[in-house]
Amino acid sequence: FFFQAEDGIRDHCVTGVQTCALPIFPTLKEGVRLAIYISVMLLFHWLTAKLNDSRQKIEQMSQQQLEQQELLLNQALASDNRHREILEDQTELIVRYLSDSTVIFVNEAYCRYFGQKREDIVGKNYAPIVFADDLEMVNQQVQSITPDNPLVTITNRVVVNGEVRWTQWNNRLLKNAHNNLWELQAVGRDITALKE
After folding, report:
1. Per residue in 23-52, pLDDT tens?
2. Which of 35, 53, 113, 151 has an alpha carbon 20 to 30 Å from 69's alpha carbon atom?
3. CA distances from 33 to 1, 15, 44, 46, 71 (A)
């Protein structure tokens, strides 16, 4: 059937036999060498097609994985934005900080209450403006927060614009999905009117 093919294909195969198969099989007849060459070329083309197909499938899978990761990241960012919006809308004073005391979030109510700017608080060590006589008690209470005791409510005085005010704080240890320590959140409110 080969010699019924177009002349260009036949010439290509004959040239291939002469340059590839002839030096390897010099004693074989031209027809046998041609059959070997055609078999090798068909195998080469089949392997090339399979490799291209595999490469395309890998690229498709990689693209799908990238798209899935991007989707998950966008969902996480949207969830984080919704979470932040909820925290910002609260009238309670909210601060989140890491176990090394680095503040990672304060809401607008916290900033207004203490008369500070967010950029002056976030990224710095958490140092609540506690009335001097209450400082040791507050530190002991915060140190008592553990995985077995993740919520501690502290009532203490703070100094705001030179005025002593009473506050109550719910301090909660937050853990991630792997049950590792993650961060501390303090949610406070002014209770001066209740104390007077």
Report:
1. 445 555 666 666 666 777 777 777 787 888
2. 53
3. 15, 11, 16, 20, 56
Give the contacts of 168 (CB within 8 A, at least 6 positions apart). 153, 154, 155, 188, 189, 191
Q: pTM for the complete prediction?
A: 0.57
**DSSP per position, the chain:** -GGGS-HHHHHHHHHHIIIIIHHHSTTS-HHHHHHHHHHHHHHHHHHHHHHHHHHHHHHHHHHHHHHHHHHHHHHHHHHHHHHHHHHHH-SSEEEEE-TT-BEEEE-HHHHHHHT--GGGTTTSBP---B-GGGHHHHHHHHHT--SSS-EEEEEEEEEETTEEEEEEEEEEEEE-TTS-EEEEEEEEEE-HHHH-
Q: Which of 138, 137, 141, 148 is nearest to 181 (CA)?
A: 148
Q: Which residues contact 21 (CB under 8 A, 6 or more apart)?
A: 28, 33, 34, 36, 37, 40
